[in-house]
Amino acid sequence: MPGSPLQRAAAAAAGALAVAQLPPLAARPLWARALLCALAAYLPSYLDGAECRGAPLRSGAYSLWFRALARRLLRRAFDIRDAVLEDAAALSRCKQCILAVHPHGVLSLDHLLTVAGYDAGLEAALPQARRCALSASVLFRLPLLREHLLLTGCVDASRKSADRCLEKGLSLSVVPGGEREQLLATRGPVERLVLRRRQGFVKLALRHGVPIVPAYCFGEAQLYDQSRWCMGLRSWVQRTFGVALVMPYGHRGLPGVPHRTPVCTVVGAPLDMPRIEGTPTQAQVDEHHARYVAEVERIFAQHKAAAGYPDVQLQLL
Q1: Where exactly are the transmembrane stretches of this chain (predicted)?
Q2: If you ran DSSP here, which 8-state letter would residue 260 be given?
């Protein structure tokens, strides 16, 4: 359907209104016909594939409002500390990068903070307005949440979407561990990263020649315990449908209530990646992926004590 989103919605609503005048729909209650028109007006934007087109609906005003709301509400629910930037000057010089955030955790609070532009220091170095956040495809199937994601610059976590963003000169943020890491996340002495075979973001960086910026959020994995009930079935759902059925509980065993634990994100220096024309070989991907993994391990070991987790160990899966 040609025209702007508003024109497409108006045309669809007008068509639905005309159909609603025909029998037997004309005999239906007014609220039912109004609902039909509203759904028809919404469908064109719901099906337009905007999540795959490099954040065309990003709204600066909405992003500022959401940032202010996040800063007001999240500090009441979580003990969020200022982010530590290992090389703020190098981050500021990055015209483009892939910000890789670890771990996913049950809530993915760390990625929410980066999407919102919560931390003033990180926002000054890597403005949210120049980044797109790769988000799970299923999230764009949920009305209202879809609109929120699009307005804040989130895009579908597909290779095509990522390529389009980088081609437009935008940076990306990604959580490499994905739904599998989310399902395995639980409070305890060992934090698990699903990273050993997650190489897609490295291939992306090599194809476009953009640096990768590692970020580790201490405390993310310690916010919740997670039930192991029906883990076999939940793992099957995650592998088959890409959805993590999390069962978190926290303070006093209450579902969804987080433990009060410090949350601090450490952002490393940009890890430069060479631009490789065509498709990088597996040997090239392995080499630069190993460089990245070593940098994540260094950040964890170097900063865990200062972040408040001196005895926590890191396990790579």
Answers
A1: none
A2: -
- CB contact at 8 A, 126 and 200: no
pLDDT of residue 242: 86
- Give the pLDDT confidence score for residue 214 in this predicted structure: 97
Contacts of 202 (CB under 8 A, 6+ apart): 212, 273, 285, 288, 289, 292
Tokens of 174: 């990604």
Amino acid 293: pLDDT = 97
- pLDDT of the residue at 48: 79
Residue 154 is encoded by which pair of tokens? 């989130």
Q: What is the largest CA-CA distance in the chain?
A: 72
pTM (two decimals): 0.88
Q: Per-residue pLDDT tens for 10-32? A: 555 555 555 556 566 666 676 67
pLDDT value of position 47: 77
User: Left (φ > 0), alpha (ψ -120 to 50) or beta: where does 278 sit?
Assistant: left
Low-confidence ranges of the chain (pLDDT < 50): 1, 9
For residue 2, whether the previous peptide bond is cis, meaning omega lies within 30 degrees of 0, is no
Element (H, E) at 138: none
Whole-angstrom Cα distance, residue 311 to residue 136? 32
CA distance linking residue 110 with residue 236, whole number of Å: 26
d(CA 31, CA 59): 32
Backbone angles phi, psi at 40, to 5 degrees: -65, -40
Q: Give 4-48 as a DSSP string.
A: -HHHHHHHHHHHHHHHHTSTTGGGS-HHHHHHHHHHHHHHHHHTS
Handedness of CA 266, 55, 183, 251 (dihedral sign): positive
Helix 5-20 with 30-46: angle, nearest 10 deg: 150
Give which of 99, 115, 131, 88 is closest to 216, Cα–Cα: 99
Structural contact between residues 158 and 118, judged by C-beta atoms closer than 8 angstroms: no
Collapsing DSSP to helix, strand or coil, 249 comes out as strand
